[in-house]
């Protein structure tokens, strides 16, 4: 069991004697923690493709856990009212609609609770939510109860650049007994969260990481198309304080074990639990693919399949992957792991990238979508991660650095164009006779 950042095991940890008073204090805290029963409630932060899919999947079970959706502004709550409190997943032309979710809405740095269920019947939703003014929506929210309930299990699905800001809004509701699952693209997010949100190790929640490969496309807010079945790979993140002993299953916090068990038993997610080292390798494979396909589609302004059968682009892919392969194969956390050199060889990664581009030939990458919408991209957590790890190892990643700068420049250029555009409203003009 993890208690305030310290791992309590049945075996002595090497490194010298420990004061008896400290042991007694930890034992007392552990006993108090065991007395607390988990409520089973799962909070979800980020209602994009992944957040909507995960919440919907959890609600499909015969005995679903209580679920709270964390909406980060009142405008998103307006969309929620317009859907009559429903999440919808479209598959093969059929819509599967789920209800019964509790809602927290953030307004002026305060979370307000708007539970969907009122006794045995759904609470009444405003019939004029589509035409209600922003002030009316805000007044409805602030009339609700403030919610400072402690969060036991939190699933974070916001984009990587938004993670720190999003977690800061709920950090006061997380405890060292809580578990936070990050289901996102990119890597290096936990290090940034520790630095900017939870700088004190003993106050940090437990962490889990996951990667999801389902084909998901947003149609409208809270409605997502499920275009292809994939998998969800999950793993708890060991505490860095544990260095002298191998972590056992019994050492995970109760909230971690509960969340992992619940997700792996949720059939639509097709979720499996892996060891931290195995998950890291899956993450790095996905990162390598994203570091090639995403930025090149941004710079070429093209769909994934258009990267194929183009010799100059193929050369650029090779140069990118040589750097990526060199960095990954040199990572200290992978040293001694069998098969790493072959798994992350540049030629194998190139073959995987070509296969992925063929499979998703008609898709527009998420990074290109972000650029077109004038939103911040995840390039700092994809190519930027390779660059940072390369610098730690003394490896210069000049091609990745150039690609990253060009993506940022392209994004800034599009944003400036959109900001300089003057919208014209011609609705009040009458045609001349």
Automatic annotation (TrEMBL):
<feature type="compositionally biased region" description="Basic and acidic residues">
    <location>
        <begin position="132"/>
        <end position="144"/>
    </location>
</feature>
<dbReference type="InterPro" id="IPR013332">
    <property type="entry name" value="KPR_N"/>
</dbReference>
<dbReference type="InterPro" id="IPR013752">
    <property type="entry name" value="KPA_reductase"/>
</dbReference>
<keyword id="KW-0560">Oxidoreductase</keyword>
<feature type="domain" description="Ketopantoate reductase C-terminal">
    <location>
        <begin position="280"/>
        <end position="410"/>
    </location>
</feature>
<comment type="similarity">
    <text>Belongs to the ketopantoate reductase family.</text>
</comment>
<feature type="region of interest" description="Disordered">
    <location>
        <begin position="121"/>
        <end position="144"/>
    </location>
</feature>
<dbReference type="InterPro" id="IPR013328">
    <property type="entry name" value="6PGD_dom2"/>
</dbReference>
<dbReference type="Pfam" id="PF08546">
    <property type="entry name" value="ApbA_C"/>
</dbReference>
<dbReference type="InterPro" id="IPR008927">
    <property type="entry name" value="6-PGluconate_DH-like_C_sf"/>
</dbReference>
<dbReference type="InterPro" id="IPR036291">
    <property type="entry name" value="NAD(P)-bd_dom_sf"/>
</dbReference>
<dbReference type="InterPro" id="IPR003710">
    <property type="entry name" value="ApbA"/>
</dbReference>
<dbReference type="Pfam" id="PF02558">
    <property type="entry name" value="ApbA"/>
</dbReference>
<dbReference type="InterPro" id="IPR050838">
    <property type="entry name" value="Ketopantoate_reductase"/>
</dbReference>
<protein>
    <recommendedName>
        <fullName>2-dehydropantoate 2-reductase</fullName>
        <ecNumber>1.1.1.169</ecNumber>
    </recommendedName>
</protein>
<feature type="domain" description="Ketopantoate reductase N-terminal">
    <location>
        <begin position="134"/>
        <end position="237"/>
    </location>
</feature>
<keyword id="KW-0521">NADP</keyword>
């Amino acid at each position: 069991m993890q208690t305030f950042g310290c791992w309590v095991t049945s075996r002595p940890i090497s490194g010298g004697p420990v004061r008896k008073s400290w042991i007694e204090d930890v034992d007392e805290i552990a006993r108090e923690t065991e007395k607390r029963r988990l409520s089973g409630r799962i909070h979800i932060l980020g209602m994009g493709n992944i957040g909507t899919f995960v919440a919907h999947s959890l609600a499909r079970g015969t005995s679903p856990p209580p679920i709270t959706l964390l909406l980060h502004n009142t405008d998103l709550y307006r969309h929620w009212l317009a859907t009559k409190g429903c999440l919808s997943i479209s598959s093969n032309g059929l819509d599967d609609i789920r209800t019964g979710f509790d809602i927290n809405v953030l307004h002026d740095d305060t979370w307000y609770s708007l539970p969907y269920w009122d006794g045995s019947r759904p609470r009444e939703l405003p019939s004029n939510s589509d035409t209600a003014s922003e002030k009316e929506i805000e007044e409805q929210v602030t009339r609700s109860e403030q919610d400072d309930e402690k969060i036991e299990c939190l699933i974070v699905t916001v984009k990587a650049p938004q993670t720190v800001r999003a977690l800061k809004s709920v950090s006061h509701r997380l405890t060292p007994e809580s578990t936070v699952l990050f289901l996102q693209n990119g890597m290096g997010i936990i290090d940034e969260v520790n630095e900017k949100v939870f700088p004190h190790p003993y106050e940090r929640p437990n962490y889990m990481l996951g990667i999801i490969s389902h084909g998901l496309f947003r149609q409208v807010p809270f409605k997502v198309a499920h275009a292809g079945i994939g998998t969800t790979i999950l793993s708890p993140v060991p505490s860095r304080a544990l260095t002298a002993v191998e972590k056992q299953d019994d050492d995970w916090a109760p909230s971690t074990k509960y969340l992992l068990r619940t997700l792996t038993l949720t059939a639509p997610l097709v979720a499996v639990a892996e060891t931290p080292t195995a998950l890291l390798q899956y993450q790095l494979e996905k990162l390598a693919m994203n570091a090639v396909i995403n930025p090149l589609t941004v710079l070429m302004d093209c769909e994934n399949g258009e990267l194929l059968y183009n010799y100059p682009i193929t050369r650029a892919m090779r140069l990118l992957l040589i750097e990526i392969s060199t960095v990954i194969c040199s990572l200290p956390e992978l040293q001694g792991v069998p098969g790493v050199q072959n798994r992350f060889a540049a030629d194998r990664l190139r073959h995987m990238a070509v296969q992925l581009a063929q499979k998703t030939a008609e898709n527009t990458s998420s990074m290109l979508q972000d650029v077109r919408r004038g939103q911040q991209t995840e390039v700092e957590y994809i190519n930027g991660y390779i660059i940072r790890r390369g610098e730690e190892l003394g490896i210069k990643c000049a091609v990745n650095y150039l690609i990253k700068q060009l993506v940022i420049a392209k994004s800034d250029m599009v944003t400036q164009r959109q900001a300089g555009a003057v919208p014209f409203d011609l609705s009040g003009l009458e045609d001349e006779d």
